[in-house]
Amino acid sequence: MVLPQDVGLRAPWYQSHPIYRFRHYPDMDEMRHWGTPYRLRTNNQGLRADRDEPYRSPEEIRVVVHGDSMTLGVGIDNSETFVQRLETALRRRDARVDVLNLGVSGHGPDNEYLLFVEESLRYSPRICVVAVSLMNDLDDLTRPDTAFHLDDERLTYIPFEPPVSKRLAESSLYRWVASRSHLLIAIRYALFDLPEYARIEAAVASQPPPLSLAVAIYREFVSAVRNERAVPVILLLPSMEEVAYRRAITTERPKASSMLLREALTELCASLGVVCIDALDAIAGSRVPFDALFIPGDDHYTAEGHRIIAALLEEPVAAALEDLGPR
Fold it and tell me: Contact 184/169 with Cβ under 8 angstroms?
């Protein structure tokens, strides 16, 4: 069953891409629902922003932020995301700073790395923040459309062709009807979305966490950022289960994949000399009530959670900006 509010939840918002698989449509401006209504706006290049961003902007100091729905800010308005809050804080120090939100709901490490190589570097970033969602980023690499596999410890790209059903769903007619029709959304959800979700869940359940693949992708990501003479920063975003465990709300330990990825990336950053910021202590140790940190009935951060992350990022990113030399 699809309720009226689900039109705002399941309306089309993904655009296929032959390399990094998908991203959000450009020029969206709509009310969506994720626990509570929120306004989702994207610019002419699909970034979650209230303004268009030229690729070349010599007068600005660019910071790009990659991640999934946690970074995009599902469930909250543009101005409430940690990306936008970070820009506001940094501009008090230097009005030239421009922080771009390249978060895409559903992206994993492979999509984020390819999006940087294909798109993000065209903005000439000086700093690239890679926001790692410990909730599911490792599991994302078990999906059927994963972009890489390891071949003798080397990344091998897997070619991708969007399915016909997806290409048809991206037509302007379908998008127009789907944004207004409960029936069409219900049919699509039953015939295409549910089987796809089941296929993904089965793949995740049947495979061990692909930790070596994740580490290899993040290693290449760091190398690609540095090749652009930019500074990589790894941001670890804890899952709701990790915060609950740290606050002793539950005695059940977080998922093994969350703990494995945290440990592996902490070690990787130490070996490569990369700034690694773990938000677990800041979020779990805050005075904000647990129920006010996460969207009701969901595990995405509320505006309060994003505020804590932005405050945690401000000083390390500001310090990195001060250390930058001329490009």
Answer: no
